[in-house]
Amino acid sequence: MKATLVSICPTDAANAAGRHALTPELLAATGARYSRNNEGMESIVAKIDPARLDASVDSIFKMLDYGHQSIADMVPVAIFMDGISMWLAYHVWSLAPVAGGQESSTRYIRMSPESVLPPEDLGIPAELRCEWRASMEGAFSHYSRLEEAWSNFVRANPGELRIPAALRDDESDKARRQVARMVRNYSFDRARYLLPTALSTNVMLVMSARSWASLCTNLSSLPLPEANALAEALRGELSLAAPHLLRHAVATQDARAGLAREFDARRAMAAALAGTPCPQDRCSVPHLEVSTPHGVGGAELASALDFHSNRYAWQGPDIARTAVRFSWDAMAFAEMRDLNRHRTGTKHSSFVPRGFYCALDQIPHPNEFFAAPVDIEAGDAANFGARLSARARDLLAAGDPTYIYWTLLGTEFDFEHVTTADKFIYEAELRTGTGAHYRYARHFHDMLALWYERFPETRGKVLEGSAEPE
To answer: Which end of the chain is more exposed for a tag (fewer CB within 10 A), N or C?
Structure first.
């Protein structure tokens, strides 16, 4: 695990134009000064000693109080986090709804068993480490065989890719590379459900120092060594960019107590299911709750989409004023990772394993000879994944917080997102549009069906796609 701060330096054009370049904390201090007088930026910056930039925060802007969180919101910090588990990356994203960033993708990268994090770093109990290692090896064995089987299947059945005829018939090197990438992505998309959540990934985020401090508080207060180690690594990088904020980036008794209560509730839910199997490819049920402003109905929402020509285009204020809560009772962690990265609102999961998804619904004509290898392998993998997900749930019921590292990307949990209708529509259009993953496209088609039941006037104005390949 490694966290690395990356500072922003001025561009050549900014330097040539004589624009100011400030450290993150000086930027916040300059902004904070605005609230105490109206002297203007040039007068404020003139008080800075260029040879003592960090010292200027204290010596010139004595009114700066990092207990006042609005000040910390003005301290931009970018940190790259290498080698954290996919589960921890998910957790970090869920606590960073206003961050920008990226994460390594299982849709474009072939994963290897060497990337599974050591059980010692994850806090897996010593007496369970042999079993856990064997489980991770089994998961990767299935992943490798599935990736090969799906690749062979789609090469024998190119129609399943929905490749445009012009591209399929193009003999150029560029076209061949594009088709090869589409075959590879098709296979990755369907094999990825056997990847462990303990697999190493890389994440970078850009957000305010206030958000970083809040994240550190949560990570430091969790009963997981990996989370604690990341918090400490982040604190080290924050000390370079926002040293005044470190006293707010620590574990607190309140956070520990709240997280412990949350875990106890999760354990009780798992205990009620302990000893029962995890169903395979269960039917995920969508739920949608919408609260419109007074006097706003389907006609008004449809009117608010009159000038909505693409997912980035205009949406009227009646859409933005409408509150939306949408959820699924079971969603594979692979899709949760994708949907969790939407920047707005609040995402929630109880993280109690509900079932296991393994793309069995993607096997057309299972009785025909060319599908048999995929059918057999996927069935074996689904059985393995369902058993391992049930094992994780039983460990949770027994009170082991490291149960989460026994789950796979196909393990299904409940997932909820609370936001506003303009953000919901953007997400639905993105996640059903060109290049969308087939599984979360299906989830959003189901959710939009509920939306249209409530607001049929908006059908055709919400730009629902067909997840065509890109």
So the answer is: C
